[in-house]
Amino acid sequence: MSGSVGRKRQKTRSLRALLSSSSPPVPEPNLDDSLLAEILRRLPGPRFLFQCTCVCKQWYSVISSPYFARLFINNHIALLNEDEEEKENNVLVSYKKNPSSVIASCATSPLFGNPDLKTCNVFLRSAHDDPLFQTLDLCFNYLPVKKEPVHVLAAFNDLVLCCAGRTRHFLVNPFTRKWVALPPVPVMGKGRVSCGLVGEPHCVKDSKGDYTFNSQIRYRVALIADALHARTPSVSIYYSEIGKWHTTVLENENALTVCIVHSNVIAYKGKLLWCFGKCIIEFNPFIISKTRYIELPSNCPTPSDNSHILVKCSIGVCRGFLRLVVWECSAAFHNAYVTVWELEDYRLGKWKEVHRRPLLAFVKCHRHWTLPGLGGHPSDPNVMYSIGDDFNIISCDLHTTDFGVAADMSPKLTEHPSVEAFPFVLPLWPTPIPVPPKHS
């Protein structure tokens, strides 16, 4: 009896040994870096590439190299020149057709006021937007903050400037989830502080038509103090290459003699632009001495023209052209209009009126006497965004005057929000976050 049991155990052990010896562990493939790059560059888009960086250290090293980025972009640019069937199967084609979406950043208290700030950030999309935007996460839960809500202050291409609380600022790429913390901002005094972000291009085309990368990319963060209190606009600029803030003062006698028209701050042609007085300031934070003043259209209303008319201006870029959107309504809210101008000659400052519509549905004000217009979509010239009832963000087609809810904010907000909209562009290759110098 015991002998038969022992023989069974011996057979079982020998069978296990046979199975283990017949199934040796498969060795990991050791591909050459150049061969691996040739395989990976055929993936349809950057989203899949950044998922592949988690496979192993070799894949991460190959995909993160500037050589591979240049190889990937040049390969997909070549696909863009093929027939339409091939274009529709390429993820990067949609960048060329419709490269932008809009971030709406909502705050329920003044940005530099109450530290108990409640915020939410959402994407606004037109009907034909890129599906890659759906994979982006705007909760910023990977930033080193505890309970402070993260609020978007500015955007440049695929980079966004965020703040948590009053003084903590971060430069973030939501696509790659890379970020860097900025040093504490200088004291800006009383009044509203507007923010702008602009940087040098990371990917440029050389004389041969190939795409190369700027390894020494620089960017600037600008904080513009409200001139209503200081009587002259002061700008604090963060220099990425030295990791420090410096403050400068803008002086223009013509701009200071009129009532101030506030607007958002945008990046355009490597400069920062915002409305001040009856002009648009074109501020170059890389060369401060080169500041230009572009006069607004002659028939553009301003708060100084009529105290019974409420006016809000916003500027933006649509299909490469600078646009000015003016929302105006009577103090009793009987009449409301939205007017859109386009700067058809940027060098001469020549404007062209492209839309003027009576849109009472855009003027759904609440407790605050403000106009809730946000601006337009950077790719669709007919789409405008505004705040509707119940704090919803609504979109309107100025051509058909059709309205729709772009984002339902009512479950998230219980107070009247302060809302700003920023364009967000997915370039051919995600912009890296420059590391600040160690001495900063």
How would you describe this structure to a colleague?
The N and C termini lie far apart (81 Å). This protein has two domains: 32-97, no CATH class; 98-425, Neuraminidase (6 Propeller), CATH 2.120.10. It is α+β, with helices and mostly antiparallel strands and 440 residues long. The chain is globular. 18% of the residues lie in helices and 35% in strands. Strand 22 (383-387) and strand 23 form a beta hairpin. The chain has helices at 2-22, 33-40, 46-52, 57-64, 66-80, 84-88, 93-97, 227-230, 253-256; strands spanning 100-107, 119-124, 150-156, 159-164, 168-173, 178-181, 193-199, 203-205, 211-213, 219-225, 234-239, 244-249, 266-268, 271-276, 279-283, 291-295, 309-318, 321-330, 336-345, 350-358, 373-376, 383-387, 393-397, 403-407, 418-425. The strands form seven sheets. It has a four-stranded antiparallel beta sheet, with no helix packed on it. Strands 7-10-11-12 form a four-stranded antiparallel beta sheet, with no helix packed on it. A four-stranded antiparallel beta sheet has the order 13-14-15-16, with no helix packed on it.
State the strand order across the main sheet. Answer: 3-4-5-6
Morphology? globular
Instruction: Count the E strands.
Output: 25
Question: Which radius of gyration do the C-alpha atoms yield?
Answer: 27 Å
Bin the strand percentage.
35-45%
Task: Supply the number of helical segments.
Answer: 9
Region (Disordered): 1-28
Protein name: F-box domain-containing protein
Domain F-box: 31-72
Biased composition (Basic residues): 1-14
